[in-house]
Design goal:
The complex is a heterodimer of chains A (386) and B (311). Chain A has 386 residues and is of the alpha/beta class. Chain A is built from 16 helices and five strands. In chain A, strand 1, helix 3 and strand 2 form a beta-alpha-beta unit. In chain A, helix 2 packs parallel to helix 13, helix 8 runs antiparallel to helix 13 and helix 12 crosses helix 13. Chain A starts with 16 loop residues before the first helix and ends in a 6-residue tail after the last helix. Chain B is an alpha/beta fold and 311 residues long. Chain B has two domains: 216 residues, P-loop containing nucleotide triphosphate hydrolases (Rossmann fold), CATH 3.40.50.300; 64 residues, Lrp/AsnC effector binding domain/regulation of amino acid metabolism (RAM) domain (Alpha-Beta Plaits), CATH 3.30.70. Chain B has twelve helices and 14 strands. A six-stranded mixed β-sheet of chain B has the order 6-7-8-3-9-10, sandwiched between helices. A four-stranded antiparallel β-sheet of chain B has the order 2-1-4-5. A four-stranded antiparallel β-sheet of chain B has the order 12-13-11-14, sandwiched between helices. In chain B, helix 4 crosses helix 5, helix 4 packs parallel to helix 6 and helix 5 crosses helix 6. Chain B is globular. Classes of the chains: A alpha/beta (386), B alpha/beta (311). Chains A and B meet through helix 10 of A and helix 3 and strand 6 of B.
Chain lengths: 386, 311
């Protein structure tokens, strides 16, 4: 090979040196960006995801919220009232119960947000002109979800019932609507937000701690020698997750401690149960972060995956917007996020004093999600460099 | 296990491995005797690392089979891993752990009874006493290499796989390293070591040369040189570059390579080579000598030939 063929002349300092060098850098960056598929996907995915979620899924004045009805008598008037309530589009009666304790359980477990009680002898009392009380109990832990329905209750029912009622007077109802905002009577949003923050902060930090753990070993070259030693994937995973369970636990204690001491958020339920289920939630997030780190090619990708998981977690879990106000498809996605279940758990334990029995479903869901993530991680963990 | 199998640490046949359609190792067979130092030579990208990784279960061969320490390389990776120390090409201990912490980690992972004691003894053996608290990332290249070797030998393996252990290490550290390897082999350890350095090849009991995924020759250094059937002349004197340019490509001349102040002219066809150099033999100022080919001549020749055959 002759050296002359491949030699190009250096023409001295070019006239627009600044432009040439900037251009060289720009071309290189573009090539690198094009090769980095995940970054490229993020450029498209993040705006699309945000727009769709905000545009379709989020509703700050939610409708069709699940409600339970406690019918103490079966009367025409009762039925018309329920129909009228449903016509307001705020309520959707999903359960009919027959005693007060069942009614309370549904509210405690978060299966319904409202309960409407039509007392015995209601219709007769109306006819007599006694103005009996119709009880509407709301789970006000999330003031946003409850307040719009509660505030417009009187007028809407009145209009809806106007032609059904035999009183000539359209201004006043022949019965009283007694709305009872349970668990957060003053509708203070911080009572809702502080417990929610426990979950959000834990999601963010726990994901990041473990999302980098495997990719870091690969990038630093330590994975190759780790794989050549007699250690099994499950052992690697547990060894990497367990230290952070303690870190997460410490973090949760700090947030809850500050919430109680500075913001006056109550803890009505059992602290032990809260600690136990928080640990479960921490484990689920660590497992998911660890799974990301087995899927990602490098640390940047692991971070990007965590971001793409964190975003819907914030928007679809019920942290920022009422969960039950979202369309069904968004709720299905939400059910797949640990934060959704933990928010229900932490709010229910702190504000409602719910017990493990009330929270069975969410506990099992969290456990299931954790096991699922761990299984994927162990299966995905490459024991060889193939 | 038969007695013969006892004598053989590595016995593999027909190992083949491809990545993305490109065959990196082709039909490779080799045997390594227990207690020997086996040198694995070849250019970059020739498949040395891939072969070593297949031997310790880090890669699954596409085809081929064999045993490592008597265990099947396909199915008994876990058993092999317990008995093999693998030192990767790139420093792969934890840079943000101290010398002692790294050694204790390895000792615990292999389930040694007294990880602290084992680490302490190794620190002493490595001559790192007083520096056991230093972070591994802060050590110099030579010390990192020693530490990595120490970590590999800590769990008392029967076989060491060393992938270019002395790349980028100064000559003194390299010599110490090889003394250590010979000491370990004398204790009965089998060592498979890949390298680029010819002087290191000559320190091995046996060598194998691999290029483009093919194992081309193996045996002792003397056997490999003898097998090559290469005729080499060295020429020293003035205007050697001119001589080199004129001889390159002439019939019978396969290689012309400068070595310091002399030129090695080699070829497989002795008669053709001699007739090609004839016009230059009596030039004043040039001094010709018939010489034995060096190991490097043999390897470059093998590489050139394999390029023709496999590329």
């Amino acid at each position: 090979m002759s050296a002359v063929d491949t030699q190009h002349e250096y023409a001295g300092e070019p006239r627009f040196g600044f432009l040439h060098r900037t251009y060289a850098m720009l071309v290189k960056e573009f090539i690198q960006l094009r090769r980095d598929r995940v970054s490229f996907a993020m450029i498209v995915m993040i705006p699309v995801m945000q727009l769709l979620l905000f545009g379709y899924a989020i509703n700050t004045t939610p409708h069709h919220l699940p409600a339970a009805v406690l019918l103490q008598e079966d009367s025409d008037l009762g039925r018309s009232i329920l129909k009228a309530l449903e016509n307001t589009a705020y309520f959707r009666f999903t359960r009919e119960v027959h005693d007060v304790s069942e009614f309370d359980d549904l509210l405690l477990s978060g299966k319904v947000l409202f309960g409407v009680e039509i007392p015995r002898g209601f219709e007769r009392a109306v006819r007599r002109g006694d103005r009996p009380a119709l009880l509407v109990a709301a789970d006000a832990t999330d003031p946003v979800a409850a307040s719009s329905a509660l505030s417009s209750l009187g007028t809407i029912v009145q209009t809806a019932l106007a032609h059904d009622l035999y009183t000539g007077d359209p201004v006043s109802l022949p019965f009283e609507i007694r709305a009872h905002a349970r668990y957060n009577p003053a509708a203070e949003s911080r009572l809702n937000i502080v417990p929610g923050l426990v979950g959000t902060i834990l999601t963010m930090t726990m994901l990041i701690f473990t999302a980098l753990s495997v990719t870091r070993e690969i990038e630093r070259g330590t994975m190759e020698s780790l794989l050549s030693m007699p250690i099994k994937p499950v052992e690697v995973m547990l060894g990497k997750i367990l230290p952070y369970v303690m870190v997460g636990f410490l973090q949760a204690s700090i947030i809850i401690g500050i919430g109680v001491l500075l913001f006056g958020v109550p803890v009505f339920g059992s602290l032990f149960l809260l600690a136990l289920l928080s640990t479960l939630f921490i484990g689920a997030n660590l497992a998911i972060g660890y799974t990301f780190s087995t899927l990602a090619q490098n640390q940047l990708q692991a971070m990007q995956l965590s971001m793409m998981f964190f975003l819907p977690s914030i928007l679809l879990s019920g942290f920022m917007f009422p969960f039950l106000g979202m369309p069904q498809w968004a709720q299905y996605i939400g059910e797949g996020l640990p934060l959704t279940h933990y928010l229900r758990i932490v709010r229910a334990i702190m504000l409602k004093g719910s017990t493990l029995q009330n929270l069975q479903y969410d506990t099992i869901a969290l456990f299931g999600l954790m096991l699922f993530a761990m299984t994927v991680a162990v299966l995905r963990f490459r024991r060889t460099l193939d | 296990m038969t007695h013969a199998a006892d004598e053989i640490a590595i016995d593999v046949k027909g190992l083949t491995k491809s990545f993305g359609g490109r065959e990196v190792v082709h039909d490779l067979s080799m045997q390594v005797k227990r207690g020997s130092i086996y040198g694995f030579l070849g250019p970059n990208g020739s498949g040395k690392t891939t072969t070593i990784r297949m031997l310790c279960g880090l890669l699954t061969p596409d085809s081929g089979e064999g045993t490592c320490l008597g265990f099947d390389i396909r199915h008994d990776a876990d058993l092999i891993k317990r008995r093999v120390g693998y030192m990767t090409q790139r420093f792969s201990l934890y840079q943000d752990l101290s010398v002692r912490e790294n050694l204790e980690f390895v000792a615990r992972l292999y389930g040694l009874r007294d990880p602290r004691g084992a680490a302490r003894d190794m620190v002493k053996r490595l001559g790192l006493s007083g520096r056991e608290g230093q972070l591994a990332g802060e050590l110099s290249g030579g010390w990192k290499q020693r530490l990595a070797l120490g970590a590999c030998t800590l769990p008392n393996p029967q076989l060491l796989l060393l992938d270019e252990p002395t790349a980028g290490v100064d000559p003194k550290a390299r010599r110490d390293f090889w003394n250590e390897i010979h000491a370990l082999a004398a204790e009965g350890l089998t060592v498979l070591v890949s390298t680029h350095y010819m002087d290191e090849a000559e320190r091995c009991h046996e060598i194998a040369y691999i290029a483009y995924g093919h194992l081309l020759v193996h045996g002792t250094v003397e056997q490999v040189v003898a097998q090559s059937a290469l005729t080499t002349y060295t020429v020293s004197g003035d205007h050697l570059q001119e001589v080199a340019n004129a001889l390159t490509g002439q019939p019978g001349i396969d290689m012309v390579a400068p070595f310091g102040t002399s030129l090695h002219v080699s070829g497989r066809d002795k008669a053709a080579l001699e007739s090609s150099i004839l016009p230059w033999r009596d030039k004043p100022g040039l001094h010709w000598q018939h010489a034995a080919p060096s190991l490097e001549d043999v390897f470059i020749d093998l590489m050139n030939r394999s390029k023709d055959n496999f590329q």
